Amino acid sequence: MKRMRSRMIGLVAALLLVAAGCGGEPPGGGGGPGAGAKVAFLMPDIASTRYELYDAPLFKARMKRLCPSCEVLYQNADADAAKQQQQADSMIAQGVKVIVIDPVDSAAAATIVRAARAQNIPIIAYDRPIPAVRADYYVSFDNERIGALIAGSLVDRLRETKAEGGVLIVNGSPTDAAAGLIKKGVHSAVDPSGFEVLAEYDTPGWQPSKAQEWVSGQIAKFPGRIAGVVAANDGTGGGAIAAFKAANVKVPPVSGNDAELAAVQRIVAGDQYNTISKPIRIVAEAAADVAHGFLRGERPPARATLFDTPSQLFTPTVVTRENVAKELLGPGGPLKAGQVCTAPYKAACDALGIR
Predict the structure, then answer these.
(1) What range does the record give for the signal peptide (predicted)?
(2) Number of structural domains found in the chain
(3) Model pTM greater than 0.85?
(4) pLDDT value at position 283?
């Protein structure tokens, strides 16, 4: 009897150990679905600092929490579509189980989608959609809404100040479908505003230097007539501002998007009128959640559909001097006052009560 009882105790202990082993790993870790998988994270360029500083680290950190044994393979294409194609081919050859891609060229990325699909590898379009071929999922802020917000905010400012003249529109890259959505949103606010569009430019590769060069030409072409500039992101907005300063012309209200540190400093100083707060943590972590779902054999639910693709589209917030401290520098905000209020901006920060 004692011998039987000992055997039963031993069996129960063994079962408890097995149960503990099954439940001891975080979701996706150990021997669970997706354990040890490789996930590709392919970003488009380094012209915008966000990919190196925020998107990649945040995505990696979230994947590490979800799947400790998974490996994120990160590559940046430096605005070269052919290079991104090579990176994707390399990732497929290395046996990745999911590809998360922010395409350099939204049309060219269709080839990457087809190649991944042939290997049964889910593709998650990140920040920029891939219209020509249906991806498995799309995660982004609502880019059309972004365009409407930055342009509408700037138009309101021009009306408040009774500005005279017209506006320049500096769009993003012509090969970026997200830029096309932003452009559509911009026109939805500018076209009915009563302010003439003096000229419009699609910026190759989102390059700030190209935006600056083009705006410089427009300053000479329309002297005294530029009331404002709707720029599709902070880089092109910064290029526009640099053009006015180089020409020794007063900088009119200029929009932006991405809430990059340099842009926030320009807003604090009064050089840039607005930007968009779209916390990258939201899209980076959402993309990791979706990738992890695919690794586990699940199809994440869609909250929207864009270009026939199941999507999550988050709502952004427009930021000006009036709410910059609240939206970007408060508790849990993406930036700290010490980052923004360096010596050249200390007086401007003090004037806004930012410390």
Answers:
(1) 1-24
(2) 2
(3) no
(4) 96
